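Re: the request from the purification team.
They wanted to know what the chain is likely to look like in 3D before they choose a buffer screen. I agreed to run a prediction and write the result into the notebook, where they can find it.
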Amino acid sequence: MIVSSTCSVSLNLHNTRYKFGKVSDIQQLSQVYPTPATTDWPRLSRQNGMTSSHFHTPAEIRAAAMAVGNALAQFETYALVGGSACVVLGSTRATQDIDLVVPRGETSDARQLLRASPDFEVEARTNHTTYKARSPVQVEILTPPLLFKEPFDENTEVITIEGVKVLKPALLLNAKCGSITGRSTEDKRRTDSLDINFLLNFCAQNPEYLPESDEVPRATKQLVHVLIQLYGGEEAWVRAGFSLRTGIDYLESLTES
């Protein structure tokens, strides 16, 4: 059940600050940044000076994620986040790396377990961590609040998929709604929008994961309307329980009436 807040949200594009909710701005941005197809990631990466070698197929990401799960089997509190978490949940979007979050002060312990695993290489000087494969996958260890903007500790809800801990889908959705407004490139905003759409559909198809009213505070009514204008996905938001009229889950309203 998704509840919106009344905070103001803005988006930085080409050093111009656009205020969400202005129809003229939305129309202008929609013309400049049309919605990409999921299969457009090689073209998008080339436009931003990257090659497709920076991206990994879902199969490669899943293999790396399973290895992370094995290496951190005895590590109580961690979770995959970002695009790699979506891939473990079933997304078919290519992504660049594995992002996992641990509580503050536990980065060293998590990295030591990865270093002890034959599946990973950790550079002694830089701590740069990669999953060993034909196409090595970079592994980033994040901690709140600097590298991961949402709260994360032993009380944060996670789910386990084939031995891999993943942040609860509703919390992934909230994190994506927060990150998309701060992205510096349209490439990143587009991939965030694809992940948001995937998570909405995942929750709708798996009702046990439908967001509770306090789990997605970053999905403000204002933000949702702008994302729909820019990237589509209105039906997905509604199916996930978001009321486009009030910003409050219509199921919750019916329950209370």
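For the purification team: The chain has one domain: 10-256.
Please add any questions underneath this entry.
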